[in-house]
Amino acid sequence: MKRIEEAFGAEMREFTTVGIGGAAERLVFPRSVREIQEILASERAANREVRALGGGSNLLVSDGGVRGTVVCLKKNMGKVLFASGGTAVADAGVMLPRFAVLCALSALSGAEELGGIPGTVGGALTMNAGAYGRAIGDIVEWVEIVDPEGALYRVAARDIRFSYRMAEYPVGGIIARAGFRLRPGHSDEAFSRMKTLNERRRASQPWGERTFGSTFRNPPGLERAAVLLERAGMKGAREGDAMFSEKHANFMINRGRAGSSDVLRLIARGREAVRKLADITLATEVKMWGIAYE
Ligand code: FAD
């Protein structure tokens, strides 16, 4: 049996899109669902904390790092299989832009809107990520989850409660693989839609910057978090090298050497400014590791 690939003390800033985060006690890179099961069973037996890591595109990790084991799916869990009738099965570590391109190449439609989101299938299914009117929960048929004891479950989409940037599963654990139902389409139309959407994205969001995307969830009602932050004067506001983007006030950017405490100070300032302006308390969308915040 192959040894599970692992690293000790790796800096999480190398694994997050915002480029922030101290050392992970242990990082493991499973190559199969079986290996995820083995890792979870042995970590449970040893009573060690386990976290799943996808693309690290919605994460703020403490400069102090994280204890326990981080299971990184992006490196070795990247298979996508297509079957007749418009179904696709993707490993949790598959990046959404690659998934969208592979669907388009197979003349399947339904994943185009996800093509500009820099996360993995597993991370997107955790967050019900989406854009331009489509979320991943709209196209998924089933999800395979390894529970904290190492047992594998297949959950049908109808048993998962998807809502705005949220998914509630009947079983907790690590998402290992998922099946998708797509529509027959045309490759050129799918690529053309992705190109249009990416141009829209480039026009409204910072590009090529170190960021974790949206800091806050849009509050219930009509007001978007970005507009509230802008009206509250937070566009371009800084704490050290952490900054709310000049282009999109809800996007947090690392201008170079920002640390988790700079980001937390700026989050607190943004939240306070919006509370004063509109009496709305924004909730964070970004997930935090090693940080006691909310
Ligand atoms: P990570 O950041 O690695 O993890 C996020 C959370 O999911 C963590 O709690 C983690 O433990 C959990 N997780 C990850 N993988 C698994 C798994 N296999 N099993 C169980 N739990 C898991 N989001 C949108 O919805 N729409 C957008 O348009 C959008 N645009 C963005 C643009 C930019 C430039 C950036 C940086 C981010 C954007 N995001 C957007 C946010 C982010 O890309 C999504 O939330 C994405 O789904 C996160 O996936 P990830 O694999 O990077 O997850």
Tell me what the structure shows.
This protein is of the alpha+beta class. Helix content is 25%, strand content 30%. It is built from 6 helices and 21 strands. The strands form 7 sheets. A 5-stranded antiparallel beta sheet has the order 6-7-15-11-12. The longest helix has 19 residues. It is globular and about 50 Å long. Bound molecules: flavin-adenine dinucleotide. The site of flavin-adenine dinucleotide has 31 residues, from strand 3, helix 3, strand 9, strand 15 and strand 17.
Question: What is shown here, in short?
Answer:
The protein is of the alpha+beta class and about 290 residues long.
- Small molecules held by this entry: flavin-adenine dinucleotide
Poorly predicted ranges (pLDDT <50, ≥5 residues)?
none
Q: What is the string of SSEs from the N terminus onward?
A: EEHEEEEEHEHEEEEEEEEHEHEEEHE
Structural class: alpha+beta
Shape estimate? globular
- Main pleated sheet: 5 strands, antiparallel
Sheet with most strands: strand arrangement: 6-7-15-11-12
How helix-rich are the residues, as a percent range? Answer: 25-40%
